[in-house]
């Protein structure tokens, strides 16, 4: 069999050890690090990825001391008694033939607790706590604590460590003028600002010896005012090479940067060009990262010489066997990460265990799995959206005989609509994956056929994933010819005018505002236009890589009013790590937000409102209903009347915001119980 991805699957020789391929599973904090019994679960999590063929893994960030913890309960490795917990992970990974490094991360001023320290006493915009400036002696103590942490990691059996020097954490704070205002030997010139990083690297190399992987995560593009310039990045990389690093990994953007770097709206491999430039300056392997989620994207980066390795973190949440499937030429079987952040980063920032929207088994390897059914059953699944496709796939995997009914002529449900929103094109990958799985596992499809109670009564198990219908608010005139639903718009069943009012400012309203305001091809599909839209200077004419934003990105195809009854900030319920992006785009395009609206009526003149007792007419051509949805339970009611048992999942169970994460997980849980 021909090797479909020869560069991605080529081994990488580090001299003292060899990696099986060029795929690095980047650092992800899962939340298991702090759970009771979490290290045993982490061992299963990493072992599954090692079994799946990834060349090298990096753990979530572990602090070298208490002050460096991201929050008070976060993990650190400072004492010998902590080694045995980590040994569970390394033993499990090595049994599967894998290699794993532990990331050492000191939060610096990003620490969410009052004991935070930093190079200078400058508060971060994303933390409520102002840090205390480390004394010169405090810096040297911290360096020793990094070295101690690495030495303990080696005792725990890790193949190496990654020193986190990017994303705006402590070391990155020392490196940049914006956060380093010191006048001692650790501040001022680049040599002084780099001193701490280099002392840490040299100290670790001396402590652990030459046969230990030492990765430095270098910020190649800070994307903040006062960030480093390109010459400084290159000089630091050369110093790091001289100090003994094995690999230079890439960091893009500080957490406080108001530029998206890993969300689904970021084009694939948007930042690989910057890694390519650095690779020409150093001789150690360089890793490209950010929005690399398919084997063909990875292969393109590596074959074109943009990097020596590719980092894929979330893609290994989505599919732990990504590498092996690619090697076996089973691309259609890869469950591709769609960059939504809903199960991973959104959970992390809420101090919840991470998982994955498209793979509910991620981080639940010891608690949720599909095992062969003790008795094969006849299973009917009604509804071909994400919940229904997942349920049918999982049931067939367990050995049941499955029939999937879908009243429309195509599968996909709400995901077909979501995939049309600019920046959400990746959703097509999930649809393609489940369609392939349904075929592979021989699920019988009955498309364009509404299921009847009589048909369903013949099955052993009935799972209803009948989804939702748009909620129609009780407004006078809501059935008029100028009122349409969001589904009708996305299915191109109606024409939309030049002036539009959107009723409902939740996730659906924001998606519709982006869809209707976009007048070009989605910038997510055009790297150059996307970089210009967000003001990213890949030529590095300014410190931090920032430039003036392209004003054409602010042009809206329509005049749009986004209206809600609530008086709270529009989009308050959007994703923790992506909501700000959507709010910024709509603000840029001049979308007009109307809050605290009391709907009066709709007629041919437009939408009549009362806000704070003031009557107002929005003179619009079209009113689009985005006011949520209701569970579609008409079939469930018919089955109940006829005494047919069923199970509800997805939107049919709870008509919350289009929550595919909950729907797909619920599908797994329900199928496991039959």
Automatic annotation (TrEMBL):
It comes from the Bacteria. Gene3D superfamilies: Aldolase class I, FAD/NAD(P)-binding domain, NAD(P)-binding Rossmann-like Domain. GO terms for biological process: fatty acid beta-oxidation, unsaturated, even number, reductase/isomerase pathway. Residues 9-330 form the NADH:flavin oxidoreductase/NADH oxidase N-terminal domain. GO terms for molecular function: 2,4-dienoyl-CoA reductase (NADPH) activity; FMN binding; iron-sulfur cluster binding; metal ion binding. The keyword Flavoprotein applies. Keywords: Flavoprotein, FMN, Iron, Iron-sulfur, Metal-binding, Oxidoreductase. Residues 378-643 form the FAD/NAD(P)-binding domain. Its cofactor is [4Fe-4S] cluster; FMN. Pfam families: Oxidored_FMN, Pyr_redox_2. In the N-terminal section; belongs to the NADH:flavin oxidoreductase/NADH oxidase family. PANTHER family: 2,4-DIENOYL-COA REDUCTASE (PTHR42917), 2,4-DIENOYL-COA REDUCTASE [(2E)-ENOYL-COA-PRODUCING] (PTHR42917:SF2). This is 2,4-dienoyl-CoA reductase (NADPH2). It comes from Ferrimonas marina.
